[in-house]
Give the backbone structure.
Amino acid sequence: MERRLGTLEIIFQRQGRPHLAPTYDVSGLSPREQFELDTILAKIERVPTRANGRPDLRPLSVAERERVNELAERITVDASR
């Protein structure tokens, strides 16, 4: 799981903004949620990348994209606090 968290950073990078590496804390997720996130991230690692270097998420279902966004929000640590 830890090695795949870098994939989240690539997915959620916003162009035109200074790069601030997010910090992730998966301890708030249940083991099942951690497995679910890891499974989706594993799929993302296998998809082709776009010209901008970000993964092409079209092969994922809408539900998978929504779920990874939901879980990512829960594990992203706000550095400003």
